[in-house]
Structure to design on (851 residues):
């Protein structure tokens, strides 16, 4: 009966303490309970998504579910391989654009320009993150898609269109986290390198980028998470074909658009299969999150040991 | 500060508590949920209904035929909208009311030279067996298929009326509403799609099927082969306010409005 | 041949400038394109009327009201919870297992895609708790989505309040709670405000999660149990279905202007906060 005794002891202690202290303890307890709401929310989300989605995965078999490319939900065939391939293709394409542009902006802003210009450019890039995804999708449909259809061929709705739109959308994420990582590099690193006669660019790519590497990796992975998870813009520009894409100009369907397209229209096993698609998406995101968290935590650890 | 914080927390707790307590407490409106094909017509009727019946509100939502049926079954909505015939297993659970008939138009870009196809050709086109417009008497252009998503009433009606056992090609682009199909076909000279006849409104070319052009008259007379019902479904007898809306929709004035929008009267 | 390091630097910097200019160019283009096509159609009537025939004519009043309700309610729910969490993390506990669990929760929540929030909100709030597709379901879902932002910004703001403020407060004999509410929160308020304003921005832009939880009814919501279409979703439906391009552009202009104003407000609050604490 040890826990019981310790609770009793705590209670006696609590009763004996002065009123002010008791009040403080109550406030502390209430705050702690409130603080647990984020993690409880996460737990609820996990529980409900899995509860709705897992039964159909076990029914179909995990292997068949993620390795079959037959998605005929009304006939009981649930294979999401094309959507997984689509998500991967679109995300990789987006990362090429997002990383090249995002990193260039981050390096430029932290290493090469005056604070006055930074004060204008940084909020502008952050503003890109604030523009609603439907607006990106719309611009993609009215400008990018016809351009691809007329000059590059294919239906226009394509891996390429989705990659470009998503690339611009993840750019602010990559930029702002990379900026944090680059700014965390101690000044002395940079000064030492310059003192040794290196140019600023040699310093940047030889010393600063190397020192900030793990932070930049975290930025890229979080950007990937954004790209995998984006929904509305992708539905508008990707074409949503249930076929594994063979070229950049082929249309694709991603995991997210599979859910959003068919969710409203689904019932029974079909709906469960969409939740199961959500489970797969959720697992991918959690893996990416965990990698990003570990990488940036390791960086924090390293920074402290310096 | 403290008082302010406490007040807000109490307010929030009250709201959450209230909502959970009421458990599905509905708002003031009759909710009508379902097919995106019927949605625009229902929106219009709802507005007219609210004008002529002050104090009564109708809330129309999209989501799709299956969602509409589900919503009616789960009491999320009072009326479900369904743009296809009920399936055998659904018949026992719901009371359907046919509010109108709608033709399914096979639509192409206005510049397309093809005027008509046979039902067989439509099937082959959508199954992916015919891949060039030349094969059906048009120009030498690839055929780009545009379909609706799985679960859509329009897709199910199309599959039932046209495809029979064949499957729609997996290379088909998928869009989630009539409007989205229309937008895509309007801008792509190679495209072919299918959509509610009432929503084509002259911006696209609708192909004749088996020699019958899709006109309201041909739909009414039953000559045009691709016709489906627009249904309102309820579970059991509808509530008084829901019945009022259904009655309004079946009234001659509402039916005339629907006819003006390109649908065909419920018989 | 070796390229001299100075030249390499020039090439690299020029390249980066081109990419950065491209990025800003995209931003300016999007804003200009939307406003140029949409602003002429934004009239007083457009902002204060209800839509007619699916939005082909009429205005967007119900969507403005719906957006305000959903967003306001979401922030009203997430704000106090987020700030309380930040207070707990910074003032009421030491770094340990508890804080790392809470931070893990917030970090993971921040990374979850909105469509997953939508699925969750749909089964949990709309179906399991029986709220249906409604302003309330949407707001609760959004509250979960913006919670990590509010926690993080509030935490940073509270941490930025100088140690000495706290010491003085203790020195004057106040309890921890008095110190927190009267000294720390007061100084951190603009910083916390930044987080809240940014959450409002995120709520206004959100589409996927609200489509599955708040629904898409066109009319004015009469209670929080009614479904309501937000501006972003209205824009999506209008442009997607090609109902009326001028009205779609006008809706997008209203959205973009709201986002610009919100970002400016956040920026201004941040400047004030930095000036206050430093």
């Amino acid at each position: 009966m040890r826990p019981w005794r310790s609770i009793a002891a705590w209670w006696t202690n609590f009763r004996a303490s002065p009123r002010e202290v008791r009040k403080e303890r109550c406030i502390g307890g209430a705050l702690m309970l409130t603080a647990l709401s984020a993690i409880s929310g996460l737990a609820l989300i996990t529980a409900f998504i899995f509860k709705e989605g897992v039964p159909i995965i076990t029914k179909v078999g995990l292997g068949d579910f993620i390795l079959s490319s037959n998605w005929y939900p009304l006939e009981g065939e649930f294979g999401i391989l094309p959507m997984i391939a689509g998500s991967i293709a679109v995300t990789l394409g987006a990362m090429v654009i997002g990383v090249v542009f995002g990193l260039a902006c981050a390096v430029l802003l932290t290493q090469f320009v005056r604070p006055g210009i930074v004060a204008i450019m940084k909020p502008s890039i952050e503003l890109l993150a604030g523009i609603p995804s439907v607006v990106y999708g719309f611009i993609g449909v009215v400008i990018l898609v016809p351009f691809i259809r007329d000059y590059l061929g294919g239906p226009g709705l394509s891996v390429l269109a989705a990659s470009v739109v998503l690339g611009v959308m993840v750019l602010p994420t990559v930029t702002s986290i990379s900026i944090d990582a680059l700014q965390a590099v101690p000044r002395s690193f940079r000064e030492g390198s310059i003192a040794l006669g290196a140019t600023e660019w040699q310093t940047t790519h030889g010393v600063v980028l190397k020192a900030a590497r793990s932070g930049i990796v975290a930025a890229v992975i979080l950007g990937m998470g954004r790209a995998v998870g984006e929904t509305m813009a992708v539905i508008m520009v990707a074409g949503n074909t249930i076929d594994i894409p063979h070229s950049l100009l082929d249309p694709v369907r991603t995991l997210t658009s599979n859910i959003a397209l068919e969710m409203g229209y689904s019932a029974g096993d079909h709906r469960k299969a969409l939740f199961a698609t959500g489970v797969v998406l959720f697992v991918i995101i959690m893996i990416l999150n965990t990698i990003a968290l570990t990488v940036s935590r390791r960086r924090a650890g390293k920074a402290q040991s310096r | 500060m403290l008082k302010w914080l406490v007040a807000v927390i109490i307010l929030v707790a009250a709201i959450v508590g209230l909502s959970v307590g009421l458990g599905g407490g509905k708002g003031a409106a009759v909710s009508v949920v379902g097919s995106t094909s019927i949605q625009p017509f229902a929106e219009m009727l709802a507005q007219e209904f609210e004008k002529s019946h002050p104090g009564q509100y109708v809330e129309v939502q999209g989501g799709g035929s299956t969602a509409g049926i589900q919503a009616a079954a789960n009491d999320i909505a009072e009326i479900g909208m369904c743009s296809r015939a009920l399936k055998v297993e659904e018949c026992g659970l719901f009371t359907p009311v046919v509010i109108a008939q709608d033709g399914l138009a096979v639509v192409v870009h206005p510049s397309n030279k093809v005027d008509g196809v046979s039902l067989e050709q439509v099937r082959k086109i959508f199954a992916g067996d015919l891949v060039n417009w030349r094969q059906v008497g048009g120009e030498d252009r690839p055929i780009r298929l545009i379909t609706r998503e799985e679960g859509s009433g329009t897709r199910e009606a199309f599959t039932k009326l046209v495809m029979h056992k064949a499957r729609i090609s997996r290379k088909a682009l998928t869009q989630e509403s009539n409007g989205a199909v229309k937008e895509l076909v309007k801008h792509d000279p190679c495209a072919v799609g299918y959509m509610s006849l009432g929503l084509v409104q002259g911006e696209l070319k609708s192909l004749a099927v088996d020699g019958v052009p899709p006109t309201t008259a041909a739909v009414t007379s039953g000559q045009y082969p691709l016709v489906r019902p627009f249904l309102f479904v309820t579970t059991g007898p509808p509530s008084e306010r829901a019945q009022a809306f259904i009655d309004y929709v079946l009234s001659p004035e509402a039916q005339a409005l629907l006819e003006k929008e390109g649908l065909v009267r419920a018989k | 041949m070796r390229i001299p390091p100075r030249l390499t630097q020039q090439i690299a910097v020029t390249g980066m400038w081109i990419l950065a200019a491209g990025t800003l160019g995209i931003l300016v283009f999007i804003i200009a394109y939307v406003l140029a096509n949409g602003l002429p159609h934004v009239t007083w009537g457009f902002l204060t009327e209800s839509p007619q025939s699916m939005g082909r004519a009429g205005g967007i009043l119900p969507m403005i009201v719906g957006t305000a309700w959903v967003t306001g309610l979401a922030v009203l729910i997430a704000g106090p919870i987020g700030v309380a969490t930040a207070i707990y993390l910074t003032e009421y506990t030491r770094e340990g297992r508890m804080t790392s669990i809470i931070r893990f929760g917030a970090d993971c929540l921040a990374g979850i895609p909105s469509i997953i929030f939508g699925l969750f909100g749909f089964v949990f709030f709309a179906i399991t708790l029986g709220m249906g597709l409604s302003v309330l379901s949407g707001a609760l879902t959004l509250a979960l989505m913006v919670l990590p932002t509010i926690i993080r910004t509030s935490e940073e703001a509270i941490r930025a309040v100088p140690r000495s403020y706290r010491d003085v407060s203790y020195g004057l004999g106040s309890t921890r709670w008095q110190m927190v509410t009267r000294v720390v929160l007061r100084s951190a308020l603009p910083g916390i405000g930044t987080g809240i304003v940014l959450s409002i921005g995120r709520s206004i832009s959100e589409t996927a999660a609200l489509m599955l939880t708040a629904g898409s009814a066109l009319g004015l919501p009469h209670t929080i149990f009614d479904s309501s279409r937000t501006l972003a979703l209205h824009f999506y439906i209008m442009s997607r279905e090609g109902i009326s391009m001028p009205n779609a552009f006008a809706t997008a202009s209203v959205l973009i202007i709201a986002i610009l104003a919100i970002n400016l407000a956040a920026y201004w609050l941040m400047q004030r906060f930095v000036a206050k604490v430093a």
